[in-house]
Amino acid sequence: LFPERHARQAQAEVPAQGPRQLQSPVDAGLAAIKAGDPGFDLEQFNQHVQQVFFIVEQAWAERRPEMSRRVMADGLWQAHRAQIQGYLDAHKRNVIDNLTLSNLWPVAAHRGENFETITVRAVAACTDYDVDDATGRTLRGDSSIRNWEEDWTFQRSSHAKTQPGGTSMGTKCPNCGAPLDVELEGTCRYCKAPIMSGQYDWVLARISQVG
Q: Whole-model pTM?
């Protein structure tokens, strides 16, 4: 889930030359999602992704998986929690200081019969080293700040619709409207709806390193 992030210099995109290009697969996928959900807004979605990014990274750095429960799909969160538990059991922590997110853009989008997916490329930088809890000794890596890129894939039901405030990153349960309180099982504490299943809204389903 969080492999060692080796230095990667982000590549600047070169504008296409020549005749106007046909609609890209990403644009076509986003258009299909918009057609099925007129309330979908890419800028709002990107803001959602940024919030998710920093919540997940904070949960990882502080070894508190309960923080990321409200943004991760079940399978990914279970793996995330297991990796954090591995650090706790080994009495060490991963230091990702000076974290910055410099760029974010969709690299894939698709609307199927049952699910919609959007994959976003995140270009970030931070330190990446492990330290011993007791002694503070560095066990892996160093304190240099390095660039890295990851693809974050979000998924939801193709029947889901954007609802103001009724999102996994909002303040209300998208099913019953109660104050958002997600149990570790991924359900609403009040109505028990499986709100982290992707049935109601976007959830983070996969993280993969680029390159």
A: 0.85
